[in-house]
Amino acid sequence: MGFEFQKLEEKKKPLHVASQLVDAIQGGDFEVGEKLPTEEELSEMTGVSRASVREALAALRLGGIIQTKVGKGTYVKQIPVEDSIQDKILDILVDHPKPLELQEARAAFEVGIVEIAARKFSRDDRDKVGAILEKMEEAAREDNYEIFLDFHKRFHLGIAEATRNDVIEDTLKNLQGIMNDRMWRKLEKKHYLPDKRNYLLESLNIHRKIFLALRQKDTVLAAKRIKEHFERYS
Questions:
Q1: Which of 17, 107, 149, 155 is most buried, most CB within 10 Å of its CB?
Q2: CA 191 to CA 18: how far, in whole Å?
């Protein structure tokens, strides 16, 4: 690999990492489909913490440049060709740090939720969450993002309710309340949806897989599916 990563001791470390990765991809050091170095390796190469590397990778995923495959690593999804790509990543990392933190918190929290829910998942839960999934499918087929998003939130809340734990349910409601923030919605629409025309159908598919794992009361598979959800769509 010919690209030389530089170390930096400045405040905007995630942007520093993201910019270097974009330069390396645009320069041909990483081709489409090629695996990127691990978080630990990138941390050592750039002299920043793994937390900063994770923020940089999250921004690149939102920008549609890379994708993470569960258990395999992170790969180049497309070569950034637009002139504004650096500004786009800057906007994500500098102007919108909260959504990245929120996604990280949700991912950690909801893996635990789905494991508990899978153990307790009842016929009533199956009927309720299954009905929500049907509404998500209708919205996806009609390309109605706003309705899809509403039922998407209900889907995750339905899983929380299946835990029979009021603290879990209330905590998830609080997280979902933050997601209603205008900044979050603007970020998601501006940086993700325009680059992903099939977003709704792809998201629907992974939610079907989560639902199936819950119906089977398979805690391990349910946790795997929810991780795929957050790693693919965050």
A1: 17
A2: 15
Sequence ranges of the domains in the chain: 13-91, 96-232
Q: Residue 223: pLDDT above 60?
A: yes
| Structure tokens given for 234 | 């965050």
**Weakest-pLDDT range from 14-18, 26-30, 202-206:** 14-18
Backbone torsions φ then ψ of 75, nearest 5 degrees: -125, 155
Q: Under 8 Å CB-to-CB from 46, ≥6 apart: which residues?
A: 5, 6, 7, 8, 13, 16, 17, 20, 53
Cα Rg, the chain, nearest whole Å: 18
For the record, the structure tokens of 27 come out as 């320069």
Superfamily holding 96-232: GntR ligand-binding domain-like (1.20.120.530)
CATH entry, 13-91, from 2.70.70.10, 3.40.1050.10, 1.10.10.10, 3.30.590.10 = 1.10.10.10
What average pLDDT does range 37-58 have in this prediction? 87
Average pLDDT taken over every residue of the chain: 82
